[in-house]
Structure formats: C-alpha cells, structure tokens
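Possible regression after last week's pipeline update?

I re-ran a chain I had predicted before the update to compare outputs. Posting the input and the new output here so someone can diff against the archived version. Not blocking, just want to make sure nothing changed silently.
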Amino acid sequence: MKIVHVISSIDSSGGGPSRSVTHLLSSLSEISTSLIIALHTARSQKPILEHFKEPTIALTFYESKMLGMLKNLEKELTIDQPNLFHGQAIWDLPVHQMAKTARRLNVPYIITPRGMLEPWSLLQKKTKKQLALKFYQYKDLRLATCLHATAPMEADSIRALGLKNPIAVIPNGVPLEDFELKDFNKFKASKKILFLSRIHPKKGIELLIEAWCQLPIELTKDWSIDIIGNGDPLYIKNLINSITQKGLSNSIHIKAPMYGKEKIEAYQNAQLFVLPTYSENFGIVVAEALACGTPVITTKGTPWEDLETYQCGWWVNVGVDALKATLEEALVLPDEQWEQMGKNGRQLIEDKYSMHAVAEQMFTLYEWIVEKKSRPAFVRMD
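New output (post-update):
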C-alpha cells in the first residue's frame, strides 16, 4: 500500500502540524513493512527534518511559486501512483493541488483540516476564507473520500458546515520515548508556569497576562511565567509593552522558541503548563506537557475534557475571570498534589494518545479505504 501525504510546510516555525505529521509517518512505517509513504512539502528555512531515518518514507521538497503552489507537485504526484492521498491542513494551495490530482487520477483522498474549520478560526481573515471556500476549498472537502478530525468537537464543527463525508476521529499522538516523565524530587521547588506554543492572538496570551496582573502579589511573588515560541515580531513587541506597562517584567518573560531536548526540559522544569487559547482542534503541546508529568490549564476551546476525568489539570471557560480563579486554586496546591496530578497526566497520554496507538488507528483507516475492510468504529457516518 502506498500513501502520499501533502502538507504546505514542515518548517519548525509551523507549530504542531509539522511535528504531529512527521511523527505519525515515522510510527506508521513501523506498523507494516509493506506500507510505502511519501511526504511532499515546500522548501523552507528550518524544516523540522531533512529526511526520514526510515527507508520506507520518501521526503520531497518543492520550490513555491505563485500563491504558494508548489512547482511540479502535480506532475510528481501523478508519477507516485499511490493508493491513497492524504492532505494535511487546508487553505494553502498544495493540498488543493493534491485534491485536483486525486480526482483526475480517480484515487481516493483524505483531508485533515487541523482545526481550520473551527468557528473561531473561520472568523479570522473571514473574507479571504469565504472566497477560498467558494472557489475551491469546499469542493475539495466535499469530494474527499474521508475527512479526519482530531477530536469529536472538531468533527461536530465539520458537520455544522454541511459536509456529509465519513469523518475519522483520531487524535494526534505523542512519541512517549521522546518525552520522559520528570523526576518529581528534582523539580519540587519549581515555581514556574509555562506557555510554549506559537505566539499568536489565537492563543489567548493577553488573557494570561491580564489574569496574572489581577492576582494578589502575595500569591504570585515566588512564581514566574515563561512564554516560549515564535510569532509576528510586532505582535510580540506589543505583548512585551503590555507586560512592561502592567509592571510584570520581573515575573513574565518572553523567550525564543525551543526545540528538541531544550523544549522537553522546559516542560519538565515547569510546575504548570497553561494554554489559554480561544480555539484548538487538538493542542499537541497539552499532550506533550502531560507526557512530561506537568499538569495543565487549558480552555474549553480545546477538546481536553480528559484533564478533569484523569484529574491532571483544569478545563476552563475562555476568559480572564476563569483563568484567574483557576490560577488562584492551582498556585496554593501542595507538592504531593502536583506530583499526583503529573503522574495522572502521564497515565492519560499512555492510555489514549501514544503515537503507536494513533498510528494503528490511522493504518486501520487506510485499510478501510484502500482494501475495503470493515469500517472502523472511530469513523462517523452521521
């Protein structure tokens, strides 16, 4: 079975999709020696990798041309002769090139919207997205053999747009071997809160800054917040100005993005991870933090209700008031409770979000489409 994936970029600045897609492909290659995988993407300054170590995965970079299309992509996709195409994310034109090629060749294809059909996301650059939906994007989605959502909440958003395709609900996964559980004895003295993600208005960083500003100094005096990531320089400058104006420069620090071992150590060093986002289809950073044993506060703009089920964090309404109240509760917890919550979080990821388990589900989906095997239980037809 040959599966061809297309994504607009795997640059390290691209956030979760770059990591989740490349990790998924590596794990898929371990499931079946008969599975051949190709990944096509744009050349960029800092790709998350230059080649896969697995011999059954081919990675091809392309030069971008007008409007972000990839030069010679459609020709190479035709030469590939896959059994199935899988496009990662929407709006960008490489996945549209893939969908057109798939229809011309009469080859089935999957599209993973990656949260880009969530209501909040559709309101951003609304006119541009409405035009894209009208001219190509809705057709590409409507004619897909299957759509892939990373959570039931995202599947509901897809259905709300009138799309009637089968929807496979498969979460993103975490390569557990890369995210070691922290040594709780070593990090008991930590009073650090971590935000690690793309620095973007969608992520709700202003909400965290304002909530922190409203907390009594007696509560926050021993704590600090690291905001780690990349983003628009003007937006980052505005955040720094806001932090300075509120007199928080000693406790809130914006730092450059971290990768690899440095990033994992940032998760492990933190007592608490906070993602105050307006909207996420999954939020891979939440899973990574939990895998390292760090409890999480995130919002109901994400699908992380499991934080409450497993007692490893807080799943709260979007906004300053809810965030402030939760921080007031969290900052006074005893060390023993932090440790138990951290262990609970690791258990959650082992139970439901290991990369191997996710890859097994994706392979089952491919078999259903290509080899006409029984429909998996995670595929919604309603």
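Follow-up from reviewer: compared with the archived run. Residues 176-352 form a domain with the Rossmann fold fold (CATH 3.40.50.2000). Marking as no regression found.
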